[in-house]
Amino acid sequence: MQLQSIQHKIFEIRGQKVMLDFDLAALYEVETRVFNQAVKRNVDSFPEDFMFRLTTKEWNSMRSQIVTSYIQSTDNEAANESEFVISLQKKRRKDLLPYAFTEHGVTMLASVLKSPIARKMNIAIVRAFIALRKYAIQYKDILEQLDELREKIGSHDAQLNQIYEALENMLDKKVEEENQLAAWKNRKPIGFKK
Q1: How far is residue 11's CA from residue 64's CA, in Å, rounded to a whole number?
Q2: Domain range spanning residue 34?
Q3: In a domain, 72, yes or no
Q4: Is the N or C terminus of the chain more exposed, i.e. has fewer CB atoms within 10 Å?
Q5: How far apart are CA 93 and CA 44, in angstroms?
Q6: What is the tens place of the pLDDT at every residue in 55-110?
Q7: Distances (CA, A) of 62 to 11, 58, 95, 106, 122
Q8: b/e string for 133-155 if b means 16 or more Cβ within 10 A?
Q9: Are 4 and 125 in contact (CB under 8 A)?
Q10: Separation of alpha carbons 141 and 45, rounded Å
Q11: Collapsing DSSP states into helix, strand and coil, what is residue 95?
Q12: In the chain, which ranges are E strands?
């Protein structure tokens, strides 16, 4: 599975990058119910900073992100998978909100799900999280550089405005002096005529 298609299944909730239980179940090629049963049997391995249940408000706001995320996926396998996942989510009971797994929770899944597919998927998912983290660090560095440039440009703008004002004042003074000189030359002389 491509790294990018996995990254489309990573969302930000409560300030953390997470993957939802049904996406993970689809990646591990098991039913969401079976996946969640395996997690519940090992619930001690998943403290709140590894896994948490979404609130109704979070789930309702996530639904549009999930559909958008799947639409952005371009390969047909992911598109078919998204239809499958969305149809499963329509059938999901309203009182059973999805679980969200942080990067550490996904890593912990390796100790719970031990099939060869699960091992391969865990590696791919962890790589996707690492790639996102690298991207975020690069993005943060670029934002910091842009802020520095804005500050420099902002101070340059102020300095340039002062230079423009000084030049305008000098030009105004020069024009005034030229007008006075022209007025002096064009004055009507008084006194004796030659």
Answers
A1: 12
A2: 3-135
A3: yes
A4: C
A5: 25
A6: 888 888 877 666 555 555 544 444 445 444 554 455 555 558 899 998 888 888 87
A7: 9, 6, 16, 19, 23
A8: eeeeeeeeeeeeeeeeeeeeeee
A9: no
A10: 35
A11: coil
A12: 10-13, 16-20, 51-53, 99-102
Residue located via tokens 């091992």:
119
Cα–Cα distance between 149 and 69 in angstroms, integer?
A: 33
Q: Is the pTM above the cut of 0.70? A: no
Phi, psi of 2 (to 5 degrees): -75, 145
Residue 182, in any domain of the structure: no
Flag whether 148 is in a domain.
no
Report the distance separating Cα 152 and Cα 163, nearest Å.
16
Indicate the helix (H) or strand (E) that contains 146.
helix 116-185
CA separation for the pair 45, 8 (Å, rounded): 26
Structure tokens, 176: 């005034």
Number of domains in the chain: 1
